[in-house]
Amino acid sequence: MKTDLDGHFLYISPSCEQILGYKPEELITQNKFSYVHYHDKKRAIKNLNDVISKGENGRATFRMKKKDGIYIWVETLFKPVRDPDSDDIIEVISVIRDITERKISEDEVRKREETYRNLVENSPDAVILASGNEIMFINDTGVHLLGACTKEAILQKSLMDIIHPDFHDIASKRINMGKDSQEFVEYKLIRLDGSEVDVEMKGITTIYQNHPVKHIIIRDITERKKTQELLLNSEKLSVAGQLAAGIAHEVRNPLTAIKGFLQLMQSELNTHTTYFDIIESEMNRIELILTELLVLSKPQDLKFEMKDIAVIIEHVKALIDTNAIMKNIVINTYYECENLMIRCDENQLKQVFINLLKNSIEAMPDGGKITIEVINHGKDKVKILFKDTGSGIPKELLKKIGQPFFTTKENGTGLGIMVSKQIIENHHGTMHIWSDPHGTIIEIILPVK
């Protein structure tokens, strides 16, 4: 078809009837834009004006109305025609073709992609679309899981950058395998701040931007693993308690008899008193272990009274100071507030504090410093910090501290920290441990009054 600069038809080819249903004579002198869909008219006029002003060929797509009233999508190629004498553009030749089916297909694909994107974006699981090792897309849940502020921070990285090195081999095999995962596999990912997170991942093939990619579903299983670990420790603790009760009673009975006969022998024999002292000392140590075992086996009768936490700590410090000084260790105390009264069983809290200080002393064979801080924690709690300058606890061992019968000491029972935690929990408090190569910090939080 040929139009003037305002869009009036000057010539229509017979084939136009196959596309629009109009005979050429029905369109001559009519304005082309009166047949263009009103939503597309401004854009179609602009396209024609651009061709005229620039003097260059152009291309556009818009909807035109057929004789039966139905609108179809057409693709139009524009070519300006110049006057041979003045070189001014006087007409525009347009070639149109029906692209309705193509547009419908494109719209369906776009709608499917939008639906897919909405599902992925709003998924409670983290989702990554990856082509090989290249990350093509990540949803907001994934950005949050990996500790990023923007998607771009993740898109700049590869899959192997965010997967822990220990899992590179299995990840490479699954990438190269090409098959979809039938079930979730556990991995460890590295967040942008360097911390690690336990996840399970599953990859299925999909199409993204007309290319096959892996749709990787990532689920954070950190809380689940913590729960499993707590359940496991709970089971261990239950078994430990049952075992402890049996051992304690079985050993305590003959121990009582031995102590009785030892006292009789001491009263009758005055020789080898050193041997008697050693035997008695060792039996007292056995009794101490039995007492710890019994704490595990059943709740103790706690005698709660109002006590000044600073006084309790100072009493414990006085007991430990001599041993600390002999090992070139200084114990400092800092109290943010005075006369801080808590409702507690004084003897049990002393047992906890003595245990923690002894552990700190043993962690510093070459001397060092222990700091005890007592500070307010909110309106109704107090925080007690035990800090030492020892070599710290290795990361792989730190998470095992407090498990039944786990110890790093040659003569340890593996019960001290666990019993201490239980005592603190019986006081409605919490106990946490942090450690690095520069030392260890133990935090105890207890309710006030």
From TrEMBL:
EC numbers: 2.7.13.3
GO biological process: sporulation resulting in formation of a cellular spore
Domain PAS: 1-55, 112-166
Main enzyme class: transferase
Protein name: histidine kinase
Gene3D superfamilies, per the entry: 1.10.287.130, Histidine kinase-like ATPase, C-terminal domain, PAS domain
UniProt domain PAC: residue ranges: 58-111
Positions of the Histidine kinase domain: 246-449
InterPro entries named among the record's database cross-references: HATPase_C_sf (IPR036890), HATPase_dom (IPR003594), His_kinase_dom (IPR005467), HisK_dim/P_dom (IPR003661), HisK_dim/P_sf (IPR036097), PAC (IPR001610), PAS (IPR000014), PAS-assoc_C (IPR000700)
Catalytic activity as recorded in UniProt: ATP + protein L-histidine = ADP + protein N-phospho-L-histidine
Any one Gene Ontology molecular-function term assigned to this protein's record: ATP binding
PANTHER family per record: SENSOR HISTIDINE KINASE, SPORULATION KINASE A
Source taxon at top rank: Bacteria
Keyword line: ATP-binding, Kinase, Nucleotide-binding, Phosphoprotein, Sporulation, Transferase, Two-component regulatory system
